Amino acid sequence: MLDGAMLELLTLLLPIAAASGWYAASRHHGAKKSGLLRQAIGRTFEYPPNSPTDARTADEVSRLFKPGTDFGAKTLELQLALGSLFRRSGELSKAIELHEHLDSQPQLTDEQHHAVRFELGMDYLSAGLLDRAENVFAALAVSGTHGKASLQQMLTIYQSEKDWAKATECAKSLKAQGSGHRNATLAHLLCEQAQSAIALGKPDAALGYLQNALGEDPRCVRATLLKAQLALQQQRWAEAGDLLRSVEFQNPAFLPEIIDHLRFCHANLKDAETYMAYLDYIYRRYRTEAAALHLADELAQRDGDLAAANYLAGLLPERASLNLIRRTLRYADVVACEGTGSVPMLRSCLNALDGLALQKAGYACIQCGYECRELHWHCPTCRTWGTIQPAG
Ligand SMILES: [Zn+2]
């Protein structure tokens, strides 16, 4: 029988569970409320923490419920919901106190202890106590009910600490458990280890990591770029060129990233014509703007500025862009306006266009839309690997 205080607690906590799907699920599927409420508690993390509603609800709940009050095992779900509310409203010491108290209760089953300790691990993580969080999740990683979720949290911790070897082991364990974990993540963690090996002057070890990365994700552009970097360091120009060109078949959106390296290869091979023919090919095939701009630079060097201006102007009717117009005018400016009074005016327009071009972000995350001026392999916003790509 529920007493008055418990009914008030239910009134406060059930809307949170209902908002996160528990109510609808229990109506439509008739599943056990206790298990679904725990899921609902987990889903509350999808909503922005520290909201005023959370803080107000936590205050009202804590007025009715004091850590240490023994409502019995049947109310464990409500106590976990209260702990979650404390954490979401930033009252981490209260959340930790509550979960540690619950963990000390000998009448809880193993499964209930695991649920409590997982919440405690999340408290430690929110408080920045990474060592404690890691210990809790490491112990839970072998548990049946919270194994995958704990491994996921450990992966987050190791990534934030840049402990790539441990992060790789976590990603491998998640993969072995059939969690549907993206192989792209594992490939990028191996690439991180390869980069560390390159920095330590261990190219053979780096190559081993990169082969494994490509085994996990054959479309991992980063692994191919790092293999090309190793080949360039060892002056294996033709091999580096082949690797760079193979990016086309992995993800042509990354072709702008290969151009400078490819130019370096062909300069050493003394084969500018093949380089220019490739730039022409990838512009016509993929409309890679950077290829057209680099080809114009090569034409200017070989045949003069007018040739570069004519080439770029020829592209404009089909596909105009700020950069193509800007660079066409830059090359045309030198030829057409020498000795005329319009030079200062034209150049101020060009400078304004340059300013506009600088405002454009060079890269964007295809997952969350985050924009940046440098390529990050790990999106700082959505924390996904390999989703930031050259824009346009
Ligand atoms: Zn993102």
Number of strands: 3
Order the strands across the largest sheet as they lie in space. 2-1-3
Helix content: 55-70%
The description of the largest β-sheet is: 3 strands, antiparallel
The pLDDT mean sits at 83
Based on CA atoms alone, the radius of gyration comes out at: 29 Å
Distance between the termini: 64 Å
Bound molecules: zinc ion
Q: Count the helices. How many?
A: 20
Q: Work out the strand percent.
A: under 5%
Structural class: mainly alpha
From N to C, what is the helix and strand string? HHHHHHHHHHHHHHHHHHHHEEE
Q: Outline, from the CA principal axes?
A: elongated
Low-confidence stretches: 17-48
The number of domains: 4
Please characterize this protein's 3D structure.
There is one protein chain. It contains 20 helices and 3 strands. It has helices at residues 4-19, 22-29, 33-43, 52-64, 76-88, 92-103, 110-126, 130-140, 147-160, 164-176, 183-199, 203-216, 221-233, 237-250, 259-269, 272-286, 289-303, 305-315, 322-336, 343-359, and strands at residues 363-365, 371-372, 388-390. The protein starts with a helix and ends with a strand. By secondary structure, the chain is an all-alpha fold. Helix 1 (4-19) packs antiparallel against helix 4 (52-64) and helix 6 (92-103) packs antiparallel against helix 7 (110-126). It has 4 domains: 1-127; 182-260, Alpha Horseshoe (Serine Threonine Protein Phosphatase 5, Tetratricopeptide repeat), CATH 1.25.40; 271-360; 361-392. Strand 1 and strand 2 form a beta hairpin. It has a 3-stranded antiparallel β-sheet with strand order 2-1-3, with no helix packed on it. Mean pLDDT is 83; it is low at 17-48. The site of zinc ion has 9 residues, from loops. Zinc ion binds at residues 365, 367-368, 370, 379, 381-382, 384, 387.
